Amino acid sequence: MAPLKDCVAVVTGATRGAGRGIAVELGAAGATVYVTGRSTRAQPASAYGQILALSKMEAVPGSIEDAADDVTRAGGRGIAVRCDHTRDDEVAALFDRVAQAHDGRLDLLVNNAWGGHEVFDGVFQAPFWERPMDPWDAMFNRGVRNHLLASRLAAPLMLQRRQGLIVTTTFWDRHRYLMGNLFYDLAKAAMTRLAYGMAQELRPHGVASVAVSPGWMRTEFVLAGHQTDEAHWQQRPALARTESPRYVGRAVAALASDPNVMARTGEVLRVGDLAREYGFTDVDGRQPPAFELDAKAG
């Protein structure tokens, strides 16, 4: 079955992590997926020095070409497009290319490009008055702004056909505060509000907008930080609560396949909850529950 065989999708920041997992699962459902990011086989992105050093990695993992090949192997059609989502001209060129190739059609945009990893210093919890201001630019100017920019260029294509879906990846646990990480908490709250606000303006035009919140994912950087890989992560008890990036991918594919997705527009949806609703599992057959912060969180 290929429920998305006629779907044209753009997944931003799809080189690795959640973006790659989403792109591959859309491919498994038959979609044509434009895989975007800055890392190519010839030239990996160069802005990840801090996290590479902390993870003891020599080069940033993944490329848009590799991710696009994964999409095609899964059953869809992967198209790699190098795009720096902080550059207005490159983002405009991306959506012009999609429109020209598909007679103005775009069914799905997944906003996932995120600059926060560029300034990760290994400190998970610290009061805001002890943190530098670097995360602001990384998470807002190279995170939240990326999502708004892509959305405002994708929306007109969807409005023409009076249908479409914009998915914004975020983190959300019922308004609990992520203690000790104010910048991250603010940025994710902004993304969640962005999805809600866009839903209000798009609703009259038949276009849906939702925020989707995965749990703690076993991304390439997380696995490297724990000195393991996807084949051996279960040997690390600290990773027991994790889920693969394909889990959020299956959530997005389920939403994109749902003919009644407009009923969800404006909502924040946790992956674990969607798994139970739509009946999908993670790649290992488990169905991890929605990730929750410590009950003592604000």
Relevant terms:
298 residues, alpha/beta, Rossmann fold, 9 helices, SDR family oxidoreductase, SDR_fam, NAD(P)-bd_dom_sf
Describe this structure in words.
It is a single chain. β4, α5 and β5 form a beta-alpha-beta unit. This protein has one domain: Rossmann fold. The model has no long low-confidence stretch (mean pLDDT 93). The radius of gyration is 18 Å and the shape is globular. A seven-stranded parallel sheet has the order 3-2-1-4-5-6-7, sandwiched between helices. The protein has nine helices and seven strands.
What's a quick, concise take on this entry?
This is SDR family oxidoreductase. Helices cover about 40% and strands about 10% of the residues. The chain has about 300 residues and is of the alpha/beta class.
- The topology string of helices and strands comes to EHEHHEHEHEHEHHEH
Overall geometry comes to globular
- The domain tally reads 1
Helical residues, percent: 40-55%
Major beta-sheet overview: 7 strands, parallel
Give the SSE map.
Layout lengths: L7 E4 L5 H12 L3 E6 L11 H7 L8 H11 L2 E6 L5 H14 L6 E4 L22 H28 L2 E6 L12 H21 L4 E7 L6 H6 L19 H13 L10 E3 H8 L20
Parallel strand pairs: 1-2, 1-4, 2-3, 4-5, 5-6, 6-7
Helix pairs in contact: 1-3, 1-8, 4-5, 5-6, 8-9
InterPro entries: NAD(P)-bd_dom_sf, SDR_fam
Pfam family, one: adh_short_C2
Protein name: SDR family oxidoreductase
